[in-house]
């Protein structure tokens, strides 16, 4: 046929040799472990962060994956940071070295951390920051050096920190302004500078810098500063300033030459500042055009005058006046503070507040009076009808009256925790129509007295935990139509009426842990009517069942939206079981925690009703036997906790079909062998925690040891500390120190056999390809012919053509010039030619097969080019299969050239056809072409009976 193709024979020998060697090298490489996995010796990886905290490390671990973006080395014993410590962590963004013994940082120790954004060196023993200590940290934005012993900084220490935005160097021993100058000259983008609790005695702008800084926050508190002078506009963007030291006995001189130097200052904290009233007045005048928030804690004298000065600033809206030992708030104290909207008077030992104390503060929206000695809600608050937040926590309030909050119609958050309110009243929260958060925890409450039956229509969060409630009666919360979260934990509740939470249609969370709830309590169906509940916490109660017999009425059957149920830590005498239908109705449950509940048995149908469960905690129970059937219904499980359950084997996992399990924790158990089948049954496993188990250190664990070290997918937590319990001479040793050579003899034999087999296979393939490739081509096309024949042999569609012409494109001139005019022009046959009749867009193989089976006969125009053509070979194979399968005379062979028999030897199918089938020869018809065309006409005209006399003997050999 006429398709373009390359018929050049390849240099088979050389190519085959190259491919063989390459394949052999690839195979041998595959037998060698590529790299270790990430079961780390001293750390674990979580959320792409290496966690190595509190491991008594003295050096930085070197087996950390290079892909981590976080590295927590806090609370160790590292004393020196060396240049080789962080060589390969080029994508690390957060490094935490808090609370070590670091006293020295080598030059360029962090130079390879080119992506680092945050570096924490708090609570170490640094005395001096040496030359180029932070070299290479050009992307660092946050540096914390507080709580060291730093007295000096090298000139080049900070020169790379050009993008630093926050520097905390508080609680050190910096004394001079020159140290601050060294920092600021190299950190042009610094926005927050924390220098509190050093030993600075002066702060003078000309010693700091000669340019404008980008600083927005500056903390100089707890420094014994005696002289604060700003003589140039170096803080044009400063919005927050903290200065003052409550332990200082010497006054500070404030000298800011121009009021515009601090024109952006919005927040000022001068707590503990020891200065004269005149100096304070000068200070406040400097910032009286922009100040919004003023903090005056720990002021030792002139409180009234200071309040007058503060409130005279028209822009001040937030005033904090804590820890000033006020005791009594008189009516004139805050009279000038007409613009204040947020007032904090906490920790002042206040016992009484004059009824008119806040008369002038009608715009007040936030009032904090926590940690005082108030015995009742002060009447002074009733006039504050614009309050949105009121904090009266940690006082001595014992009763709430109907008038205490009756005028607070705009209050959204009320804090009354840690008082002594034994009982509530029905009208206690009257008027709080906008309240959203109410905190009443730890207030000694024993009875709610209907306080929540009618009031608080918009309450979303109610905190009643830590009180002395014993019962929740039906309708107790029926007025809380908007409630989302109800905290009742740490009470003494042992009675829950049927439907006691009914009507709370928006309730999603109930905390009932640490009460006296028993099985009998749950029988009342207290959760009936709570249709939106998603999280229910019943841990640390007294819920106990004695057998797995199905319950008549299940406790959670109404909670169809519940996603999390916690029952861990049940306190009761004796062992317990879970009824087989205990979780009935919880179709949407995602998390179930029954840790430490003294369970001894779980029925195989326990989780039939929870098919969507993703997290299951069964730890600290006596479940010695677990079966695959138990886990079969929860195929979506992702996290499983089975620590301290005394199981002797993990074989139950092999048949549990937990294909999505990612996290498995099984500490403190009694299994000693982890087989390949167990691990391979968990294809999604990412994290495995078998701490505090002991293992057989023999060949039964050889696969597990090797997998632990080299797994690229699963992290085995603390694997390098796994200990041995068998045999006796290995006791006390580590599992990963076990020498696997004794177990590798069989493996080596397998490797040898497989390698040898592969080499022989490659050599045989090379030999066959080099000497028998044409036979291979023949076999290939033979198979394709059979395949196409099988596909089309049963089709009985009528023939569309009289003959399909199969030819090579090099013979196209003869087909077009000789064959086509005779057969179609003179004799009237309908022929199929590929260039004219093949359907565009259809695959070539389908066009060929359709043409052969859609024609009565196939005429093969054979030449040397034809025999070498891939597509022509496919055509003749398909046609010959049709011939042999249908037993019909469908094939006509026309030779354009005299081809010697030896050239046909690679084409066995063609040789067989010539032995059984007559053929026409164009070269032999040179003297009598009319005979050739007549014989071809008769061949096309003959029927399909294979027994019909063949009349082509004129051209037979």
Strand fraction equals: 15-25%
By DSSP, the count of extended strands is 49
Specify Rg, calculated over alpha carbons.
45 Å
Label the CATH architecture of the domain at 780-955. Answer: 3-Layer(aba) Sandwich
Secondary-structure content class:
alpha/beta
How confident overall, as mean pLDDT?
Answer: 84
- Biggest beta-sheet profile: 29 strands, mixed
Q: Looking at CATH, which topology of the domain at 780-955 would you report?
A: Rossmann fold
Helix amount, in percent? 10-25%
Enumerate the spans where pLDDT stays under 50 for 5 or more consecutive residues: 1-36, 944-957
The CATH superfamily label of the domain at 780-955 reads Toll/interleukin-1 receptor homology (TIR) domain
Quick one: CATH class of the domain at 780-955?
A: Alpha Beta
Q: Which overall shape is indicated by the principal axes computed on the Cα atoms? A: elongated
- How far is the N terminus from the C terminus? 26 Å
What oligomerization state is this entry in?
single chain
Helix count equals: 17
Subcellular location: Membrane
Family: Belongs to the Toll-like receptor family.
Pfam family, one: TIR
Transmembrane segments: 21-40, 749-772
Topology:
Layout: H1 12-30, E1 44-46, E2 49-51, E3 70-72, E4 80-81, E5 94-96, E6 104-105, E7 118-120, E8 128-129, E9 142-144, E10 152-153, E11 166-168, H2 177-184, E12 192-194, E13 202-204, H3 205-208, E14 217-219, E15 227-230, E16 240-242, E17 253-256, E18 267-269, H4 277-286, E19 293-295, H5 303-311, E20 318-320, E21 328-329, E22 342-344, E23 352-353, E24 366-368, E25 389-391, E26 413-415, E27 437-439, E28 461-463, E29 471-472, E30 485-487, E31 495-496, E32 509-511, H6 519-523, E33 535-537, E34 564-566, E35 576-578, E36 591-593, E37 599-602, E38 615-617, H7 628-631, E39 639-641, E40 663-665, H8 676-680, E41 687-689, E42 694-696, H9 702-710, E43 715-717, E44 723-726, H10 745-792, E45 801-806, H11 812-826, E46 831-832, H12 834-837, H13 844-853, E47 855-862, H14 864-868, H15 870-886, E48 891-895, H16 908-916, E49 919-921, H17 929-941
Parallel strand pairs: 2-3, 3-5, 4-6, 5-7, 7-9, 8-10, 9-11, 11-12, 12-14, 13-15, 14-16, 15-17, 16-18, 18-19, 19-20, 20-22, 21-23, 22-24, 24-25, 25-26, 26-27, 27-28, 28-30, 29-31, 30-32, 32-33, 33-34, 34-36, 35-37, 36-38, 38-39, 39-40, 40-41, 41-43, 42-44, 45-46, 45-47, 47-48, 48-49
Antiparallel strand pairs: 1-2
Helix pairs in contact: 1-10, 4-5, 10-15, 13-15
GO molecular function, one term: signaling receptor activity
Membrane topology: Single-pass type I membrane protein
Keywords: Glycoprotein, Immunity, Inflammatory response, Innate immunity, Leucine-rich repeat, Membrane, Receptor, Repeat, Signal, Transmembrane, Transmembrane helix
């Amino acid at each position: 046929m006429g398709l373009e193709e390359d018929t050049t024979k390849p240099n088979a020998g050389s190519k085959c040799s190259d491919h063989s060697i390459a394949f052999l090298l690839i195979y041998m490489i595959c037998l060698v472990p590529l790299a270790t996995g990430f079961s780390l010796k001293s750390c674990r990886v979580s959320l792409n962060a290496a966690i190595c905290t509190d491991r008594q490390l003295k050096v930085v671990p070197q087996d950390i994956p290079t892909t981590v973006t976080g590295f927590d080395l806090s609370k160790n014993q590292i004393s020196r940071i060396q240049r080789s410590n962080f060589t390969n962590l080029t994508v690390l963004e957060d490094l935490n070295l808090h609370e070590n013994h670091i006293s020295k940082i080598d030059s360029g120790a962090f130079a390879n951390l080119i992506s680092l954004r945050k570096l924490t060196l708090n609570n170490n023993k640094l005395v001096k920051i040496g030359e180029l200590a932070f070299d290479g940290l050009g992307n660092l934005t946050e540096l914390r050096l507080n709580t060291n012993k730093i007295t000096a900084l090298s000139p080049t220490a900070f020169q790379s920190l050009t993008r630093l935005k926050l520097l905390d160097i508080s609680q050190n021993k910096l004394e001079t302004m020159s140290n601050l100058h060294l920092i600021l000259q190299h950190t042009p983008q610094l926005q927050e500078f924390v220098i509190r609790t050093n030993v600075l005695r002066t702060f003078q702008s000309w010693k700091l810098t000669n340019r404008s800084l980008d600083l927005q926050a500056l903390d100089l508190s707890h420094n014994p500063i005696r002289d604060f002078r700003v003589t140039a506009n170096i803080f044009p963007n400063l919005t927050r300033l903290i200065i003052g030291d409550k332990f200082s006995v010497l006054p500070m001189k404030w000298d800011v030459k121009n009021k515009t130097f601090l024109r952006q200052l919005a927040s000022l904290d001068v707590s503990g500042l020891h200065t004269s009233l005149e100096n304070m007045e000068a200070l406040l005048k400097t910032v009286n055009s922009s100040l919004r928030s003023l903090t005056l804690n720990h002021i030792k004298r002139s409180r009234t005058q200071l309040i007058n000065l503060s409130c005279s600033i028209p822009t001040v809206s937030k005033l904090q006046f804590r820890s000033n030992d006020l005791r009594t708030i008189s009516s004139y104290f805050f009279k000038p503070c007409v613009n204040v909207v947020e007032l904090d008077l906490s920790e002042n030992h206040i016992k009484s507040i004059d009824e008119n104390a806040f008369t002038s503060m009608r715009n007040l929206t936030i009032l904090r009076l926590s940690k005082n000695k108030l015995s009742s809600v002060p009447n002074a608050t009733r006039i504050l009808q614009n309050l949105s937040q009121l904090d009266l926590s940690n006082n001595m309030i014992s009763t709430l009256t109907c008038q205490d909050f009756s005028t607070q119609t705009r209050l959204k958050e009320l804090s009354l925790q840690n008082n002594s309110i034994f009982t509530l009243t029905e009208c206690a929260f009257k008027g709080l129509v906008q309240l959203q958060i109410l905190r009443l925890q730890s207030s000694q409450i024993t009875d709610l007295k209907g306080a929540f039956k009618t009031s608080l229509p918009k309450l979303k969060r109610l905190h009643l935990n830590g009180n002395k409630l014993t019962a929740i009666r039906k309708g107790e919360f029926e007025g809380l139509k908007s409630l989302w979260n109800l905290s009742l934990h740490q009470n003494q509740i042992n009675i829950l009426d049927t439907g006691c939470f009914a009507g709370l249609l928006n309730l999603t969370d109930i905390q009932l842990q640490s009460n006296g709830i028993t099985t009998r309590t749950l029988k009342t169906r207290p959760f009936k009517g709570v249709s939106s509940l998603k999280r229910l916490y019943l841990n640390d109660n007294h819920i106990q069942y004695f057998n797995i017999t199905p319950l008549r009425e299940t406790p959670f059957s109404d909670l169809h939206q519940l996603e999390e149920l916690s029952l861990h830590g049940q306190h009761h005498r004796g062992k317990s079981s879970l009824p087989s239908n205990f979780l009935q109705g919880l179709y949407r449950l995602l998390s179930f925690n029954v840790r430490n509940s003294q369970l001894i048995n779980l029925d195989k149908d326990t989780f039939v009703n929870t098919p969507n469960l993703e997290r299951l905690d069964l730890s600290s129970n006596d479940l010695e036997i677990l079966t695959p059937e138990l886990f079969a219904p929860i195929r979506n499980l992702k996290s499983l906790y089975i620590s301290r359950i005394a199981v002797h084997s993990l074989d139950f996992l092999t048949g549990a079909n937990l294909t999505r399990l990612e996290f498995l924790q099984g500490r403190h158990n009694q299994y000693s062998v982890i087989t390949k089948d167990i691990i391979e049954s968990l294809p999604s496993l990412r994290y495995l925690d078998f701490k505090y188990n002991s293992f057989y250190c023999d060949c039964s664990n050889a696969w597990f040891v090797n997998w632990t070290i080299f797994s690229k997918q699963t992290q085995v937590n603390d694997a390098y500390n796994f200990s041995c319990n068998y045999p006796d001479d290995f006791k006390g040793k580590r599992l990963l120190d076990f020498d696997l050579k004794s177990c590798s003899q069989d493996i080596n034999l397998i490797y040898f056999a497989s390698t040898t087999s592969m080499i022989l296979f490659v050599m045989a393939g090379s030999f066959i390809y080099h000497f028998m490739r044409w036979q291979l081509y023949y076999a290939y096309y033979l198979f394709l012919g059979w395949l196409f024949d099988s596909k089309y042999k049963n089709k009985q569609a009528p023939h569309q053509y009289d003959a399909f012409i199969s030819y090579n494109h090099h013979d196209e001139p003869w087909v077009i010039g000789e064959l086509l005019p005779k057969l179609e022009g003179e004799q009237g046959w309908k022929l199929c030619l590929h260039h004219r009749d093949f359907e565009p867009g259809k695959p070539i193989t389908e066009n060929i097969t359709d043409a052969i089976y859609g024609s009565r006969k196939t005429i093969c125009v054979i030449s040397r080019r034809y025999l070498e053509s891939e597509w022509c070979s496919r055509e003749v194979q398909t046609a010959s299969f049709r011939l042999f399968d249908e037993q019909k005379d469908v094939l006509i062979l026309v030779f354009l050239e005299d081809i010697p028999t030896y050239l046909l030897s690679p084409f066995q199918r063609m040789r067989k056809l010539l032995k059984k089938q007559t053929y026409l020869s164009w070269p032999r018809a040179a003297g009598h072409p009319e005979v050739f065309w007549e014989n071809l006409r008769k061949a096309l005209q003959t029927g399909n009976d294979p027994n019909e006399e063949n009349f082509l003997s004129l051209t037979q050999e």
